[in-house]
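Here is my example:
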Amino acid sequence: MKRVYLDHSATTPVHPEVLEAMLPYYKDKFGNASSIHQFGRDAKDALEQSREAVAKVINAASSEVYFTSGGTESDNLALKGTALANKNKGKHIITSQIEHHAVLESCKFLKKEGYDVTYLPVDKYGLVDPGVLRENIRKDTILISIIHANNETGTIQPIEELGKIARENGIYFHSDTVQAFGKIPLDVQKMGIDMLSVSAHKLYGPKGVGAIYIRKGTRISSLVHGGHHERARRAGTENVPGIVGLAKAAEIASKDMETQHQHLKNLTESFLKKLSEKIPDVFLNGHPEKKFAGTLNISFKGVEGESIILSLDMKGVAVASGSACTSGALEPSHVLSAMRIDPALAQSSIRFSFGRENTMEDVDYVVEVLPAIIQRLRSMSPIYASSKKE
């Protein structure tokens, strides 16, 4: 049976060159980067070279990059660390209704600690209105956190415009760029970003490693205490093999960005066109143009998303419903709910996220097997049958 992986927004396979770059730091160059002997110095050199490689992708200074365990930790550090360090200035935070749960749960925690959080609404495409952001800024606002490319729909926010508003008002600006890093151009200077979150396993790097960019001069408190690792911002022995893998993945992604964008654009446009021709009542969720090329969020009227996932899995095709972090949840996606998508349609949504190894043969295979699955599931759906009688 043919196997097709279309869940790259959840995670990606490690690139062969990334694995090759990591292996020496598990075997021969296994030293602790804090040790002063040669083994330690080799690890330290790799650590700093990796820092430079990550900084280069976002036009930052290497001293502004700190390594973490992944995007979730980076988001937590950005929100909680900034809130704790600036509570004397104010206790108001602005974010959006469509953030990753790492941001939303951090905000929920901070609310319990006495902070006030404003959740900006989005339009039907999942976009934040810069004007609405401006209207919600208060004298005690200390942080704005807006996701760059949404993990469920791929919709890209007007980050540069939002960052400009934050800067004009002297407010720290954070963006979760886990889905965007290495895939679309990022420039922290041009975009006015003060903090930015990164995860390696979203761009063909290893799991369990990420980074956070913190602009020089940003007041932020540490969350993990211990030694003086990462310039006392994040205690704990650095995961040197993983960090080397992140840097190599970032380097490859940056080099291949333009060609990969075109590759993914061709695949997704072809897939959506062929799917729409073969299956009636399909709806694209998210902005049709202002979106990351590799992600399609599609609703199939009258069918439960989970049933589609399981049926496609039996055909060797891996897809997702919403985000990987909330798989198994019974309630509709909070992202689609914020976009005011009909709850029944939201429950029927599937995220197809393409990657560098996917081909047009993969597109044709899924388009070949999916119509029969949808037809079978709709034939058992009283909701779809009743909608056709109306």
User: Anything to note?
Assistant: The chain has two domains: 4-11+257-389, 16-252. The mean pLDDT is 94.
